[in-house]
Every structure is written in C-alpha cells, then in structure tokens.
Design a protein that fits this description.
By secondary structure, the protein is mainly alpha-helical. It has two domains: 36 residues; 53 residues. Helix 2 runs antiparallel to helix 3. It is rod-shaped, with a radius of gyration of 26 Å.
C-alpha cells in the first residue's frame, strides 16, 4: 500500500513536471509565431494580403485604359502597393546562412 502511494506521488510529480515543460514550450512557440509574422496577428496578415491582392486586381483592371484620371489612379495604386511590399520586405526575418 505504501509502495503504491509512493508510486502515485512520483507519477503525479512527473506529470506536473511535464505540464510545466509543455507550458514553457507553448510560450516559446507563441513567441516564435510572432517572429514569423513580425508581431502582427494572423488577422492583420490576412488583411494586408487581401489588400495587396485587391491592389493588384485594380491595377490590372486599369491596364490598357488610358486617361489622365486612370493614369493618376494607377500611379496611386502602384505607390500604395510599393509601400506595402517595402513594409513587408523591411520586416521580414533575415536568415543567417553561414
């Protein structure tokens, strides 16, 4: 009976230790996930991706149609797209290949 009780206490201590290890791993992985997205939430990344897709579609729709209004609209869209792409390039994690 005493051996069984000691075995259960030991087992419980091992389970508690495993829970603590998994909690630390979870926190570490959450931090790593934020590094992948540059601290932005997945929702922010999705919205930015959708905005880039929309900008490309708008630019494509204006191609071939020449007017001064469309020219300036296309120029504005290109500028916004360039800013978004530059922002992503500047915040992208760099790899250290040695």
């Amino acid at each position: 009976m005493i051996d069984e009780k000691e075995a259960r206490i030991k087992e419980r201590a091992e389970h508690q230790q495993r829970i603590i290890e998994l909690e630390h791993l979870s926190e570490h992985l959450k931090g790593q996930l934020l590094l992948l997205t540059d601290g932005r939430s997945p929702e922010e990344c999705r919205i930015e991706k959708e905005r880039i897709k929309w900008l490309l579609q708008e630019i494509q729709n204006l191609e071939g149609i020449f007017s001064i209004v469309n020219y300036f609209k296309r120029k504005k869209l290109y500028k916004e797209l360039q800013e978004l792409m530059t922002k992503q390039a500047n915040t992208a994690p760099t790899s250290n290949n040695q």
